[in-house]
Write a structure and sequence with these properties.
The chain has 489 residues and is mainly α. The chain is built from 20 helices and five strands. The chain is elongated, with a radius of gyration of 40 Å. InterPro entries: DNA_brk_join_enz (IPR011010), Integrase-like_cat_sf (IPR013762), Integrase_catalytic (IPR002104).
Length: 489
């Protein structure tokens, strides 16, 4: 019978002639000589450890030949586990947001010949479940972790998606200010996508698929939905990355926007002031001048639609405001999108202030929340048949600044965002026609010569050239007559 000391001996700490056992080639297990005598129980345990380690190596080599990706691993001197890349456990996330991660699963296989054989069978079984996409994390595979995951706890009822979203929102407000900007972020970047999920069912892969099918492939809606669902799954501890990735689409390039010309903007001013009999509402029938004022402010100052209601009217009407600058008061709208402007906003076409009668303040009758007020502006643009949106007036303001050679940093300040955002968002709307017009204005007009002026100068030069030719012909005739007279005399 072995002694208590030898039975608790850890062979992994064995050493022979200065060489640790873990650095010894397992295939040479028979040659291993322990510091213990050959008949000592400790020496036998160490050689048996090397023999099983060699058996594990041979088993893994055979599995590799059969292209089985799950491998055996000695998790201790007495047990064998299985190591491989599996779908992430609930609550886990792979490297670089990968849906997969490497795990070592312990099945309690004893480190002996029978344990090796049983582990090989289980490795092939797991590999087949991965290949056929049937693998699932069961409480048996999760072991103790299953007790910590509510999703797998059958004794507790699964929470509904709407309940999970409520908890998700609570987490959101821990890192965001509860103001207009925060509310806008939650509604547009979070809830806008999460509401596509079925609300009164537990979280599941089917629920994710139902939401994803509501968007079209290769669209921004699909791209941002997939992005938000991954964040939500991570919060819920649900491994839905694989399902989401099957529907995910790369971020599409933005559609080229048709930015209205100044002439089209002036036509839109007239259209928005026309009452629409087909829409017999108070907004459409009784306040054409109010809508024209709102339209003129958006066109002249490049405001975001909601910023119209943040205009500091008192400062705008001051007689000292000779440059007709507009300043915004975020407190009027519980904060603007990007905070206060660092400067007043000038009209790039100053004559539009008088043309649109902007100093005669006439806010449209527009009650309710700020989001409702802003929505009504978009609706009015659409029902008036203007042909472009309120934001298109903002893009036109940006391009107008480029035509007038306003520095990019200054334009970014006027529009209330960074230079990077200005360059990325607005310069892409400058199509070939806009760029050509800017070239004509900056280069040709800078030289004080328009296309019409060039034609006039060319005509004058041609007339002068013809006159010189006629005068030259006359002089030649006189010269010939003079020469003939001398010969005759």
């Amino acid at each position: 019978m072995p002694s208590n000391k030898s039975s608790t001996h850890d062979p992994r700490k064995g050493e022979w002639d200065g060489t640790p056992i873990e650095q010894w080639e397992p295939s040479k297990w028979k040659q291993w000589k322990s510091k213990h005598s050959a008949s000592d129980e400790g020496a036998k345990i160490e050689r048996e450890y090397l023999r099983i380690k060699h058996a594990v190596q041979q088993a893994n080599f055979a599995l590799s030949l059969d292209r089985v990706k799950i491998k055996l691993k000695l998790t201790s001197d007495k047990s064998i586990g299985l190591q491989g890349t599996f779908p992430c456990k609930p609550g886990d996330i792979g490297k670089n947001s990968s849906p997969n991660r490497q795990y070592t699963i312990s099945f309690g296989f004893v480190a002996n010949d029978a344990g090796v054989k049983t582990a090989v069978i289980k490795a092939r079984e797991l590999d087949l479940s991965l290949m056929t996409k049937q693998f699932q994390w069961t409480p048996y595979l999760l072991g103790k972790q299953a007790q910590k995951i509510e999703l797998l706890d059958e004794e507790k009822p699964a929470r509904l998606i709407r309940e999970l979203i409520e908890e998700y929102e609570k987490e959101f407000w821990k890192t965001h200010e509860n103001n207009r900007q925060g509310i806008c972020t939650w509604e547009s970047h979070y809830m806008r996508h999460l509401k596509k999920l079925p609300q009164d069912v537990p979280m599941s892969l089917d629920a994710l698929e139902e939401a994803l099918k509501k968007t079209k492939p290769n669209t921004s809606a699909r791209f941002f939905l997939a992005w938000q669902l991954k964040k939500f799954c991570k919060f819920c501890g649900v491994n839905g990355f694989k399902t989401i990735n099957t529907y995910a689409t790369p971020k599409p390039n933005p559609t080229i926007r048709k930015v209205p010309l100044d002439e089209e903007i002036l036509q839109g001013f007239l259209k928005i002031g026309m009452p629409l009999s087909a829409y017999a509402s108070k907004d459409n029938m009784t306040q054409p001048e109010q809508w024209q004022w709102a339209y003129g402010m958006l066109a002249t100052y490049g405001l975001r639609p909601h910023e119209l209601f943040a205009v500091d009217v008192e400062a705008f009407l001051k007689t000292a405001n000779t440059f007709h600058l507009v300043t915004l008061n975020p407190s009027l709208t519980e904060g603007t999108k990007t905070g206060e402007r660092s400067c007043g906003i000038p009209p790039l076409h100053p004559h539009w202030v008088e043309l649109f009668d902007l100093k005669n303040i006439r806010f449209p009758y527009n009650q309710g929340k700020l989001s409702n007020k802003t929505a009504k502006i978009h609706i009015k643009f659409r029902t008036s048949g203007i042909g472009f949106s309120p934001y298109d007036l903002r893009h036109a303001y940006a391009i107008r600044g480029h035509r007038l050679r306003v520095p990019i940093k200054t334009m970014a300040d006027y529009m209330g965002h960074t230079v990077q955002e200005h360059t990325k968002t607005y310069q892409r709307w400058m199509n070939e026609d806009a760029n050509l017009e800017i070239y004509q204005e900056v280069v040709i007009h800078r030289q004080g010569i328009t296309k019409e002026a060039l034609k006039s100068i060319i005509s004058e030069l041609e007339a002068e050239n013809n006159a010189l030719k006629a005068e030259n012909a006359t002089l030649k005739g006189l010269l010939i007559q003079h020469q003939l007279g001398e010969l005759l005399s």
